[in-house]
Amino acid sequence: MTNKELNLLVAKWQKRLGLDSWKIEVNIEDLTPHTFALNLTSFSVGASCNTRWEYMIANLKFDEERIKTATVKEITLDVVHELLHIVINEMRNYDDDKLHEERVVTMLTSAFLRKL
Prior knowledge:
Elements: H1 3-16, E1 23-29, E2 36-38, E3 41-43, E4 47-52, E5 57-63, H2 64-69, H3 72-89, H4 99-112
Parallel strand pairs: 1-5
Antiparallel strand pairs: 2-3, 4-5
Helix pairs in contact: 1-3, 3-4
């Protein structure tokens, strides 16, 4: 997928999810350093989202290798998942870890994309 195609996909889902008024920057970069272990199983991060909900701005980062090799369906899942972090992030309790937010976003992504 090209950078232009990714930006169009993000814009499509940004509108569908009611995030039209948000300023969302999209970057493709090497996210390999963000590989981490959870419950003794290593996995790589395919995308990430940094949100400043109080200013309605967000930065989405997509791993360059994944963008080159993943299917459109897989990238769509990543896009929707990361955009849903924007929706949910405001409700996060910053004294806790991010696991609850991650689970809610994963479940919502599955619900939104069930027919894909």
